[in-house]
Amino acid sequence: MIKVGIVGGTGYTGVELLRLLSRHPQVSLRAVTSRKEAGMPVADMYSSLRGFVDLCFSDPADQPLQDCDVVFFATPNGIAMQQAQAMLDAGIRIIDLAADFRIRDRATWEQWYGMEHAAPQLLEEAVYGLPEVNRVQIRNARLIANPGCYPTAVQLGFLPLLEAGVIDTRHLIADCKSGVSGAGRKAEVHALLAEAGDNFKAYGVPGHRHLPEIRQGLARMSGQDVGLTFTPHLLPMIRGIHATLYGRLTRDVDLQQLFEQRYADEPFVDVLPAGSHPETRSVRGANVCRLAVHRPQGGDTVVVLAVEDNLVKGAAGQAVQNMNLMFGLPETTGLELVPLLP
């Protein structure tokens, strides 16, 4: 059994990790830390976990993670980097669901996240946890930088086109929408029901923190720098991401075949039949990204539609997928989930 700990189990990604790991056949949950809620039964905060998780939140000062094989950080940006080196030195593997290790360049990270990086020596070692691209490296990693929710959908949507070299990398567009859970479990005016309900708006147009992460990933896929316009939007729903991606074709290609062949052996990427329009509700609660590719009017513009649950394939589910790879388990272990509908 894999001995697992979670730092920051009170947020939405934390409870999603607990939901998945509590039913994982090869996992023994050892600790869920929270200074503020230390001593409270986890199921008292999240009644959905009654009968599945019998742990109490523990104070990290009591060192409840020291005998874990792997620790998930479901914390705000800037927390994992302060504790990572000591844990790695103790032989504990780390999967960070925040952004501390996603961007290789220290100066770029500090520019976008507004703080000094506490563990720059680990940036080169950290493996970016997108299994469809870095599966081999993930298997041998000590430290995983779990991708962001928007970056997962955008990269999986553009991946076949960039690998095949069939689109102009200078003019890519990612028009993305997310439910309010993407903002986390905290008190903010924009996430109030009266603010987000019955409303739809763009945000972060001058620059969003996920932009350098997406650019970095797309550049690795294409072997060159990319020009990307990324515009996120807030939808009046709880879960889900819908990414509409645009590129200009540089040569003729059978797009449907290209996508089907690239993802034929990927358990958590579903390429829909030609002409499909994926819905966010079709992935709710499941660790899958559904894709559809279009070429409107047979022109030189390609449109890719990508949907995922931002808390599962966009966060906790992908983190468990990475854990499975790190510990030599079948990649789908504990993740063969049927989406919730309606």
What order do the helices and strands come in, and which of them pair?
Elements (H helix, E strand, L loop, with lengths): L1 E6 L4 H10 L5 E7 L8 H4 L11 E2 L11 E4 L6 H10 L3 E4 L9 H8 L13 E2 L2 H9 L3 E3 L3 H16 L7 E7 L14 H4 L4 E2 L7 H13 L5 E7 L6 E8 L6 H8 L6 E3 L17 E6 L6 E8 L3 H15 L16
Parallel strand pairs: 1-2, 1-4, 2-3, 4-5, 5-7, 6-7, 8-10, 12-13
Antiparallel strand pairs: 8-11, 9-10, 11-14, 13-14
Helix pairs in contact: 1-10, 5-10, 6-8
SS strand fraction = 15-25%
Give the total of domains: 2
Major sheet: size, sense and barrel closure? 7 strands, parallel
Fourth CATH level, the homologous superfamily of the largest domain: Dihydrodipicolinate Reductase, domain 2
Give the SSE order as H and E letters.
EHEHEEHEHEHEHEHEHEEHEEEH
Low-confidence stretches: none
The name CATH uses for the topology of the largest domain is Dihydrodipicolinate Reductase, domain 2
- Could you report the average pLDDT, rounded to the nearest whole number? 96
Task: Provide the structure class.
Answer: alpha/beta
Q: Could you say which overall geometry the principal axes of the C-alpha atoms support?
A: globular
Query: What spatial order of strands do you see in the largest sheet?
Result: 3-2-1-4-5-7-6
What's the CATH C level of the largest domain? Answer: Alpha Beta
Q: Tell me the CATH architecture of the largest domain.
A: 2-Layer Sandwich
Catalytic activity: N-acetyl-L-glutamate 5-semialdehyde + phosphate + NADP(+) = N-acetyl-L-glutamyl 5-phosphate + NADPH + H(+)
Enzyme class: oxidoreductase
Family: Belongs to the NAGSA dehydrogenase family. Type 1 subfamily.
GO cellular component, one term: cytoplasm
